């Protein structure tokens, strides 16, 4: 599921006020980190990931690796912060309010 540029722009605007809920440490992408990110995406759909300064990979490469690992889309990467999105139809509400605003 590739996001359109319009969808990506809307998600970037929504992610602006979010705080990072997953942090990548100096160990990089571990199984525990992937599980934590998977849980966050399952409950929030839109998640910011903070990348530690000591991580050796480039931020865009690391965001792509994380997205591939959990089946998500990279919305944006700014500095050492990546925003990921993975739709969860079970969380859709009739009032249209997205899960990250609850």
Q: If you had to describe this structure to a student in words, what would you say it looks like?
A:
This protein is an alpha+beta fold and 102 residues long. The protein has one domain (5-89): Translation Initiation Factor IF3, CATH 3.30.110.60. Helix content is 36%, strand content 22%. It is built from 3 helices and 4 strands, in the order αβαβαββ. It has helices at 5-15, 31-44, 59-70; strands at 20-24, 46-51, 73-78, 81-85. A 4-stranded mixed beta sheet has the order 1-2-4-3, with helices on both faces. The two termini are 24 Å apart.
Query: How many beta strands in the DSSP annotation?
Result: 4
CATH architecture classification name: 2-Layer Sandwich
Mean pLDDT value: 87
CATH classification class: Alpha Beta
Low-confidence runs (pLDDT<50, min 5 residues)? none
Biggest sheet: strands side by side, in what order? 1-2-4-3
Number of helices: 3
* CATH structural fold name: Translation Initiation Factor IF3
**Percentage beta strand:** 15-25%
CATH-assigned homologous superfamily: YhbY-like
Rg is 13 Å
* Class from helix and strand fractions: alpha+beta
Note the gap between the termini: 24 Å
Order of helices and strands: HEHEHEE
What's the number of domains?
1
| Main sheet characteristics | 4 strands, mixed
| Principal-axes shape call | globular
Percent helix: 25-40%
